[in-house]
Amino acid sequence: DAGVIQSPRHEVTEMGQEVTLRCKPISGHDYLFWYRQTMMRGLELLIYFNNNVPIDDSGMPEDRFSAKMPNASFSTLKIQPSEPRDSAVYFCASSSRETQYFGPGTRLLVL
Amino acid sequence: QKEVEQDPGPLSVPEGAIVSLNCTYSNSAFQYFMWYRQYSRKGPELLMYTYSSGNKEDGRFTAQVDKSSKYISLFIRDSQPSDSATYLCAMSGPGSSGSARQLTFGSGTQLTVLP
Question: Mutate which of A29, A39, A43, A92 to test chain B, going by most B C-beta atoms within 10 A?
Fold first, then answer.
């Protein structure tokens, strides 16, 4: 199994631009999670899906952030417009039971 | 007070030492306990998983859960330079579906094993 796949691995953009992060979960997993990690705040859960349906998006910082899961093998996290304070590492994780498996992350820098 | 407390370190030990990493928590409903290892510029990797109280051993790693004290530990025997990483505790529950799937993470302990 290839594990959780994320793209791009690195993204540098300018303030105000739209950013789209992509995730392919492990096949057969029914839960998908999006996290953000910074030195100051650690790992923060942004949103999670069960069987492609968003269950809890209370961690999404503001309306500039949106996430979709059109099918069981693909999810996107979009930031529009991006701001410098969005700079962080964004992780996608998937699970079929209690344990979660993380992707390698997308390192985002907003200038 | 955070729901899960973890000493951020940094912790530096010589090669071959026994390492003890710990977390305390406040939610008595937690029943699934995990340890993740995160190397620099990588994603967290599941290291150990324990259900409820007790010990679990896997090679040089031992996970302990004491639900009565709301305290979990990870022991690393014969530590190696390759063990240098950040270790995050995580927990969830009750139940095994819905919101129980959400993990509550500690802030992570940065460990360096010196050769």
Answer: A43
Token pair recorded at residue A18: 């739209």
Mean pLDDT by 10 residues, chain B (115 residues): 87 97 94 95 94 91 95 97 97 77 92 97
Q: What is the pLDDT of residues A35-52, one digit of tens each?
A: 999 998 899 999 999 999
Please report, for residues A51, A103, B69, B77, B87, the alpha-carbon distance to residue B44 in angstroms, rounded to integers and kept in the order given.
23, 8, 26, 21, 9
Q: Which of B49, B99, B107 sits opposite A99 (nearest CB)?
A: B49
Partners of A105 on chain B (C-beta within 8 Å) are: 42-43
* A18: closest CA of chain B, how far (Å): 24
